[in-house]
Amino acid sequence: MKHVLTLTCAAFLAACSTDTESYPRLLPTDQILAEPLLPDHAPQATSTDLEAETQARADALRQRADALRGPVIEPAALERIRPQG
What we know:
Elements: H1 2-15, H2 29-32, H3 47-68, H4 75-81
């Protein structure tokens, strides 16, 4: 038990270093809650572009889901494995 306490204290002291680069800088609440500023080179996306891309992605996923609907075992294979009688 003494060793566990010693190791815990050593780990705690190692974590309390003076290196401030290890942790992110704390920001004021109004700065955290503010809308992010996009850099000049970032493309300006409009909400209609986003909605169109989202709708296209949803449609593609629905088509994939529809393609998966159907028998898992082909009818010919199912006839072979069903008991005769």
